[in-house]
Amino acid sequence: MTTSHYIAGHWVEGQGSDCISVNDPALGQPFAELMAASVTQVDQAVAAARNALPAWKNTSASERAAFLRGFAEQLGQRREALVTLQMRNNGKPRHEAEIDLDDAIATFGYYAEQAEQLPSKNRTVPLAAPGFTARTRLEPVGVVGLIVPWNFPLVTSAWKLAPALAAGCTVVLKPSEVTPLIEQAYGQIADALGLPAGVLNIVNGKAETGAALSNHNGLDKLSFTGSNSVGSQVMRSASAQCRPVTLELGGKSAIVVFEDCDVDQAVEWIVAGISWNAGQMCSATSRLLVQDGIADALLPRLQAALENLRVGNPLTEEVDMGPLTSQAQWLKVASYFATAREEGLQCLAGGHALDREGWFVSPTLYTDVPKDSRLWTEEIFGPVLCARRFATEEQAIAEANDSRFGLVATVCSADLERAERVADALEVGHVWINSVQAVFVETSWGGTKGSGIGRELGPWGLSAYQSVKHVTRCLG
Fold first, then answer.
1. Can you tell me the mean pLDDT for 463-476?
2. Domain boundary assignment for the chain
3. In this predicted model, what pLDDT tens digit does every residue of 59-92 receive, in sequence order?
4. Which residues are CB-contacts of 417 (< 8 A; sequence separation ≥ 6)?
5. What is the structure's pLDDT at 2?
6. Where in the sequence numbering do the catalytic residues fall?
7. What angle, rounded to 10 degrees, do the helices at 61-77 and 184-193 form?
8. Region 288-298: what's the mean pLDDT?
9. Angstrom distances, CA of residue 70 to CA of 63, 73, 211
10. Which CATH number fits domain 254-433: 3.10.129.10, 1.10.10.10, 1.10.10.60, 3.40.309.10?
11. Largest CB tally within 10 Å, which of 79, 108, 112, 123?
């Protein structure tokens, strides 16, 4: 696993000082090692992307679309290997790993279509002043650095890589050191398709590698998905050169359940929102606001549903939820269990790590959690649900919006007019009504407040990698 970096169309050995251990979280044991890229290799990757930019941005939209469709097809051909790797390195149940792969495939297909439409978006601009004509031209922003997280590898990178290539940008991709293997598929596919050397570069590493990339003066843009603490460092790096950034950061999202909702359906939506990927989602709806009239019926059923989730090794068992992906995350979630005990929170389900090998924790439910509790206000990134009751629609909206984050929310109600009204009032980037968290490539992804800057997916994801040029000409 030493040739783990893809630079200028070649696989090369890492020359950095960090050795990256790749773990199976269900066993708590490493199964691969690789050497990180050195700062010099990051320089080489950026230089390769810079050298490739002039030719790549001048390829036709149809040529770029053909490459993107090739990525989608090649991902499909590698299906079983990629699904298995997601299960082994992330601890995802098979059905989740399969959905991740399908998401990545759909993303490349969608941006192939968007690329083909680019010529029609360069158009004449009507002017009120006589004697002049003007036209717009959408151009690639240039060389972009893409830094992606460990909770949805392959997917988050597709959300960035596909629109960047569609726009005509060249890229340097840095995967997470927790899950560095699966993004290598993109380099393998680039080789198979004959993607011009330097258009896609992949460098693996820890904080040193990420800092070398985010501080590099050869980039024209940075796109980062991850924690708020690292995101603020990325933003500082970009600000030194007034470089644009897209940041998709944390969340502490609310799911609001009104008393007219079907109890069994509500339980299904709540469990999905906190247990998918073992709660390791920036979009996890970890704050449950339940109306007084349904709370006594809902909470016992929710307790039973969480306790009945099958938790185990996805490679050897039929499971609903796998382990946490890293030991660091396991220790973090365990620290919140300790905090809950210190705060005297009422625990209806879970509240502890599981006594077995690997990094497993129990699906957890705390009730009547005070608004000043750390568990109510801080992103835990695990299957830990905190519940509070509310009386009125106005109270529900106020408590849902009382957060420094604003990524997503879910509204559950049989009164669709009310559900739409509440959705409009929530200060977030995406709202689901009576649904699990279905994310479609045609819609936008991103948040308000502390949840980030900019949007991914849909046409907004493409525009994030474009600059707008106007050409004005005097007719006299």
1. 94
2. 5-249+452-474, 254-433
3. 999 999 999 999 999 999 999 999 999 999 999 9
4. none
5. 56
6. 248
7. 120
8. 98
9. 11, 5, 32
10. 3.40.309.10
11. 108
